[in-house]
Design a protein that fits this description.
heterodimer, A: alpha+beta, two-stranded antiparallel ribbon, 7 helices, 37% helix, B: 39 helices, transmembrane helix (chain A), ALA-interacting subunit (chain A)
């Protein structure tokens, strides 16, 4: 490699007599050649970090320092969210109806149901109103694939019901929106609307709804949810707790490694650790 | 005929014996009417050691007495011929009416046709469905182009009595083809005529067998003396075997029709043929009849599809792939049945998914097939492509390596086989040739002993010995005979240049040296001949005296027993021994007058094999020492005398003298003797194996033959016990047999040699290394790697082999890791989607994940170096990690498997919890999970790499940026399923917080575990890494010098002063670190499914035997 570089620099100096540009070009070429030969000789400059105790302990401390505040902030955000959940699928079936299934499947019975909700805490607008369904496999393969984006995007494409089987057509007419489509996960929420008024604690809200959808055959739960939102979204303690515990664990590990390092120090790069330098024992 | 010396062109004046003009040789030598005394002697000389030897003997037999038909065939050969007879082809010379349905001369090297490309390729790539089909197709297209060029080459043939210009591909069997000097032979021809009056022509067969010397081909007797225009009208029939690939054998008969000469049937041999791809040299023109054409020529038949060499790593990867495949199948079965059960019990209640009540029976297959589709990505498609890529880079690094550039001969190292670099790092046995490999193999005529008088003893150069010169000047009969034998008894072809000077083209270094020496002593050769089977004989007629002389030369064992019984051979035996002690290569010459009284004269000539201390090639002992330290066993296989071999071995550090080492001899002439000797040696080996003593055994070709035939099992045990072996006087086929034996014990073998006699061994071994030295390029051509000097071997193994192994180990396991990761996420998701086999990721993301996001960063592992080259050279023991397969085996793979499972759980759980309720939109969820995978894999690559050049940093983090760029682009396409998704996500703080959490949870334990092991359970590699790096920030050119010095002070000392002896002390602690990691332990592991049964042996690795 050195020979190579020396050879090309000699060539470069020869050019220098000709003109300054030629020299610059030669120098550039030299640099390129050096890089090239460094690559071919596998000698590209490299940084070789190793896992020293100092380095690893610092990493864990830094992770802990970052994670704990994020955890606290997330948890606070989640705690600030006021959420009212009202399950109505049971309550909306009249007490005299012995069989919920036949009740819901009987289209001649009116299904209108009135729910009264009590606001537990002050809620700042906007307040989101969700419709929640539990134990519902809306990401079932047959359900997921049953959707048509084209139809959804453009009103003039109402007849496009490809992929929407088995909910493509009814009575020879295309269903709009067609398909079984969906949001994800067995338990999901769907935004129904927003309330642009602040609610005070102990306010009551009366909701009138039609209990039409049959969840009784598969044990699904229908709920009405009123919720405020923060920068992190709705009520979700998971992120906060996860961050706090990970941060805590990092501190613990950093502490444990420090302790280990102090109690049982290992000399870096001691060749006596090499097995072939140890004197054979037990022979 | 080949051995009947004909004088080329200028007959009488051509033999210039300025000293004695008494000898004149001429062409037509006595036709021996049957096996005379000479023939019997030749055939008897080597009492059938093996079939191959017998064959060789028969070959001499046939060649010596050309006009005698075949030697009386053995029963097996009779059967062989009988079989042939059933499948003969008859070539009617120059006869359109008999033209037949044999194929034309169109050649095709392409592997595929338009019709079978797809099925054949699919079949070949069965193990991995691969993307390299396009590359294959491209390569094949290029082969097609070059084939077409060859096919459309114009040349002359005789048709209907006149010459015609046609394309090479239109040659039919039976056509007479005309070739001019320096033209390539277009198909296999039987020679009919040449421009030379003696009816010979010279061909260069390098393309066929790699031998660079010129070979002489002769016209069959019935055609001798035919005029130019007679050739146009020639008719006849040639009876020849069906096409085969044996380029040294052609057993055929020619029968010319009247009016051409006698009605005799004349046998043909390979010496009467011109084979495809040879070049006509030193001959103005030649013509011959086409017997084999197109792909049926000897070359075409032998080309075949070379069996690709499979590295141990590839085999392991295949095995792991097989295991994953079974895992995948069982997952499909389990999940498929679970899905069907869930469907029947639960999904019927989920009325909204609208299952039909009476669906056709095959609906039961839908869910398992869905899962099969989901799990199919478990076996990474990209691994084959990635491996192809990095392997070709490994090979390029070898080609480029300036430290392996041989300045003396101006040749770089070259990797002809780009696919087996990893095997270099796993070599356990090196089988080396002595001549020219360990020694520089410069042949110089040094000493001789003629008729009891020794010359050249004082000055070490016989050519300068005044006594010898005087003897020549005086015409001393013994000396003249000696020079005659030296000049004539060889295969050298003299080439006369226009200015009258004569140069020699020799097949071997010895002959070259001899003829040149003789030329210096005023004996100039103008013609030639030969065979090299331990002994070689030439019959010449002295036309002045009318005497027929048999001239012989050969190794002392071969020649001395033939000596006339009354003769005093003791002086010669002593002289041979004495010269051998000096490390010289010895050769005996003999001559004998035939038909005359039992008169024999013995001469002997000794040549320097250039192996004395001063001449030994630079760096050989150091190289052997370092490689031995790294746990590689050395076997030296040589054709030399035992004493010479031992001498060389001592000089090369291969064996140590007493009391440090001990040499055990296996010898004997009879089966019993050999058996006893072998038993004794094994016993000694067993007893002393625990002592720190270097044991080696020596065996000669004779005993080896007996052992290999009768006691191969005992010998295998010996092979396992012994680190070092010397095998002397072994033939090329025995060399190959030894390689095979070691291979059968499941050792990785590397054969290194430089001569044509090493070719078989080189091809047989897992890795063949050729030294592109003086003995021609035959070995280098046949080899997988060619290097200029033996000392480059240590760099080839320790640097290139080791890095290649490490890099491939990481790359392959990582490929499985990332495929498993995405697959596990899919499977977890299916539990939330009613086990119906819903894919969480869309097809675009899945494709891009495998092809871009995860493939490119890891490719930069080709630049990764765990230890600097210097450290490796100083601590060659570290190679054990590669040899024992520590970095890629079922247990390391289990680690990666576990990691992918853990990471999949982390990604999945965090994603679904962070993105629950109102956020749980499937496209968003899938993108969060995908981003999590990308982030984690970037961290994993970072953590697993040892050194970072800007290329790595660019690839790893540039890839992350590219991921977002690509997804922003896709998210901006309205028709894509991901429209707006990525923009929405990137605006949410929750997205970034989730990813940070995934990275933290995913990498925290991995880092902690790695650190813990690194510090408290370090592998030797870790220790050296720390040692290397704690001694300064980085090696720069400035402090390299001082660094080197301090190395010697601090670190070399313990390595050097601790005596590294007996393998046990070296290996045991390493092995006990993780017994599972050793390759041997594979046998009992559950991953053993695809292991071929025969390769398992009950022999433990010798490290364990202790």
């Amino acid at each position: 490699m050195d020979d190579h570089a020396a050879g090309s620099s000699a060539g470069g100096s020869g050019d220098s007599g000709a003109s300054r540009e030629a020299l610059q070009e030669a120098q550039l070429k030299l640099v390129l050649m050096q890089t090239d030969s460094k690559f071919t000789q596998q000698e590209l400059p490299a940084c070789k970090p190793i896992l020293t105790p100092k380095w690893v302990i610092t990493v864990f401390v830094i992770v802990g320092v970052i994670f704990v505040p994020i955890g606290i902030a997330s948890l606070r955000a989640s705690q600030q969210v006021v959420e009212i959940v009202d399950r109505y699928d049971d309550a909306c079936v009249p007490a005299n109806a012995t069989d919920k299934l036949s009740y819901i499947q009987n289209s001649s019975i009116p299904k209108t149901c009135t729910r009264t909700l009590m606001v537990t805490k002050d809620m700042k607008q906007p307040i989101f109103v969700y419709y929640q369904l539990d134990n519902f496999y809306q990401n079932h393969r047959r359900y997921v694939k049953s959707r048509n984006d084209v139809q959804l995007r453009d009103a003039s494409k109402a007849n496009d019901t490809a992929n929407c089987d088995p909910e493509a057509t009814a009575n020879g007419q295309p269903i709009v929106p067609c398909g079984l489509i969906a949001w994800t996960l067995p338990t999901f929420r769907k935004l129904y609307g927003r309330i642009h008024v602040d609610l005070k604690a102990n306010d009551t809200i009366t909701v009138q709804l039609e209990n039409n959808y049959n969840t009784y055959s598969f044990g699904g739960k229908k709920k009405l949810v009123l919720s405020t939102a923060t920068w992190l979204g709705g009520k979700n303690d998971f992120l906060g707790f996860a961050y706090l515990s990970v941060g805590g664990l990092c501190f613990f590990l950093a502490f444990a490694f420090t302790l280990l390092y102090l109690i049982k120090p290992r000399k870096q790069g001691d060749n006596n650790y090499l097995s072939w330098n140890r004197t054979p024992t037990g022979r | 005929m080949a051995h009947v010396t004909r004088l080329a062109r200028s007959a009488p004046s051509s033999l210039l014996c300025t000293v004695s003009a008494s000898l004149c040789l001429t062409g037509h030598i006595a036709r021996f009417s049957g096996p005379g005394p000479l023939l019997r002697e030749t055939a008897d000389e080597s009492p059938a050691r093996s079939y191959g030897e017998l064959d060789a003997a028969a070959e001499i037999w046939r060649r010596t007495a050309v006009l005698v038909l075949r030697p009386s065939p053995s029963p097996s050969r009779l059967q062989f011929f009988a079989k042939l007879k059933a499948m003969k082809r008859f070539v009617y010379i120059n006869d359109e009416s008999y033209q037949n349905d044999y194929c034309d001369n169109r050649i095709s090297n392409t592997k595929y046709t338009l019709w079978n490309f797809l099925p054949k390729n699919l079949w070949e790539q069965f193990r991995f469905v691969t993307l390299s089909a396009t590359k294959e197709a491209w390569d094949d297209y290029n082969r097609y182009i070059s084939d077409r060029q060859a096919n459309e080459k114009e040349l002359w043939i005789v048709k209907n009595g006149s010459r015609k210009h046609i394309q090479a591909q239109d040659i039919q069997v039976g056509n007479i083809v005309w070739i001019r000097e320096n033209e390539e032979v277009p198909c296999d021809l039987v020679l009919l005529g040449t421009s030379e009056p003696q009816g010979v022509c010279h061909v260069e067969t390098a393309a066929l067998d790699g031998e660079t010397d010129l070979k002489t081909r002769v016209i069959p007797p019935p055609c001798v003396g035919l005029e130019f225009d007679q050739l146009h009208k020639l008719k006849g029939v040639i009876e020849c075997p069906v096409p085969d690939k044996d380029i040294r054998r052609f057993d055929a008969n020619i029968h010319l029709f009247p009016p051409f000469i006698d009605n005799d049937i004349c046998p043909l041999s390979i010496n009467n043929t011109l084979l495809q791809s040879c070049y006509l040299r030193n001959t103005e023109w030649a013509c011959g009849v086409a017997v084999y054409t197109g792909n049926e020529t000897k070359l075409g038949m032998s080309r075949g599809v070379p069996e690709p060499k499979l590295t141990a790593m590839d085999a392991m990867i295949d095995k792991l792939t097989g295991a994953i495949f079974l895992f995948q199948l069982s997952l499909v079965v389990v999940l498929g049945s679970a899905g069907n059960i869930w469907k029947d019990s639960e999904a019927r209640k989920q009325w909204y998914v609208k299952y039909d009540d009476d669906e056709p029976w095959y609906q039961i297959l839908v869910i398992p097939l869905r899962f099969e589709l989901l799990c199919s990505i478990m076996i990474p498609i990209s691994i084959k492509v990635s491996l192809d890529f990095v392997k070709s880079l490994y090979a390029k690094f070898i080609d480029w390596d300036e430290e392996m550039f041989d300045l003396e001969n101006d040749t770089p190292a070259h990797a002809a086989n780009t696919a087996i670099s990893e095997d270099l790092g796993q070599v356990e046995y090196v089988l080396t040739d002595k001549t020219g490999t360990l020694t520089e193999n410069k042949m110089i005529f040094r000493r001789c002993c003629i008729g009891g008088t020794s010359y050249g003893n004082e000055c070490g150069d016989a050519l300068k010995d005044v006594e010898l010169l005087n003897a020549i000047a005086n015409g001393s009969p013994h000396v003249i005979k000696f020079l005659t034998v030296m000049t004539l008894c060889n295969t050298v072809i003299p080439i006369k240049s226009p200015n009258g000077s004569i140069s020699y083209k020799a097949q071997s270094q010895d002959e070259d040296a001899l003829v040149n020496a003789a030329a210096n002593l005023h004996m100039v050769l103008v013609s030639k001949n030969g065979n090299i089977a331990g002994r070689m004989s030439v019959v010449v007629l002295d036309c002045q005296s009318g005497k027929i002389l048999l001239l012989s030369k050969g190794a002392d064992e071969a020649v001395l027993p033939c000596a006339y019984s009354g003769q005093q051979t003791k002086t010669f035996v002593d002289a041979v021994d004495k010269y051998a002690q000096l490390g010289l290569r010895t050769l005996c010459l003999a001559w004998r007058e035939l038909e005359s009284e039992e008169y024999a004269e013995w001469s002997r000539l000794f040549k320097e094999a250039n192996s004395a201390l001063t001449d030994r090639e630079v760096g050989v002992p150091e190289t052997i020492e370092i490689l031995r330290q790294s746990g590689i066993n050395f076997w030296m296989l040589t054709g030399d005398k035992q004493s010479t071999a031992i001498q060389i071995a001592l000089l090369c550090n291969l064996i140590s003298s007493e009391p440090k080492g001990q040499l055990l001899y296996i010898n004997g002439r009879t089966e019993d003797e050999v058996a006893r000797s072998l038993e004794r040696v094994i016993l000694t080996m067993r007893i002393t194996s625990s002592e720190p003593k270097e044991l080696a055994f020596v065996v000669d070709g004779w005993a080896l033959e007996i052992i290999l035939t009768h006691y191969s099992e005992a010998f295998t045990e010996l092979a396992v016990l012994s680190k070092t072996a010397l095998c002397c006087r072994v033939t090329p086929s025995q060399k190959a047999q030894l390689v095979k034996l070691l291979k059968s014990c499941d050792y990785r073998t590397l054969a290194i040699g430089d001569g044509g006699n090493d070719v078989r061994m080189i091809q047989q071994a897992h890795i063949g290394v050729g030294i592109s030295g003086r003995e021609g390029l035959q070995a280098a051509r046949a080899a997988d790697y060619s290097i200029g000097k033996f000392r480059f071997l240590k760099r080839l193994i320790l640097v290139h082999g080791r890095y290649s192994y490490n890099r491939t180990a990481f790359l392959s396991q990582y490929s499985f890791y990332k495929s498993l990761l995405i697959c596990f996420i899919q499977i977890f998701f299916s539990f939330l989607s009613g086990i119906a086999g819903t894919s969480l990721f869309n097809s675009v993301s899945l494709m891009a994940y495998n092809v871009f996001y995860t493939s490119i960063p890891v490719l930069t592992t080709v630049l990764d170096k765990d230890l600097s080259e210097k450290t490796v050279m100083q601590n060659p023991e570290i190679l054990l990690y590669c040899q024992a397969g520590r970095l890629l085996n079922p247990s390391t793979f289990a680690g990666w498997f576990g990691r992918s499972l853990y990471h999949a759980i982390v990604i999945f759980l965090i994603t679904i919890h962070a993105y629950s309720n109102e956020r749980s939109e499937m496209e968003e969820l899938s993108m969060v999970a995908l981003s999590g995978s990308i982030w984690l894999q970037a961290f994993v690559v970072t953590l697993e790499m040892n050194s970072f050049t800007f290329v790595q940093l660019l690839a790893i983090w540039g890839n992350c940026i590219a991921f977002y760029a690509i997804n922003f682009f896709i998210s901006s396409i309205p028709s894509s399923g991901m429209y707006t998704i990525m923009f929405r996500l990137c605006k949410q703080p929750a997205y970034w917080i989730t990813l940070l959490l995934i990275s933290g949870v995913g990498m925290g334990p991995v880092l902690a575990l790695k650190y813990f092991r690194y510090t408290y359970r370090p592998s030797a590699i870790n220790v050296l890494q720390k040692a290397e790096r704690s001694r300064g920030p980085m090696y720069s050119l400035v402090n390299l010098e001082s660094q080197l010095r301090s190395d010697k002070d601090t670190m070399m000392v313990p390595v050097a002063t601790t005596p590294v002896k007996g393998k046990s002390s070296v290996y045991e602690p390493l092995l006990s670190d993780s017994p599972m990691a050793s390759r041997r332990s594979l046998g009992s592991s559950s991953f053993d499914i695809f292991q071929p049964a025969h390769s398992r042996t009950s022999y433990p690795r010798n490290i364990k035997a202790n």
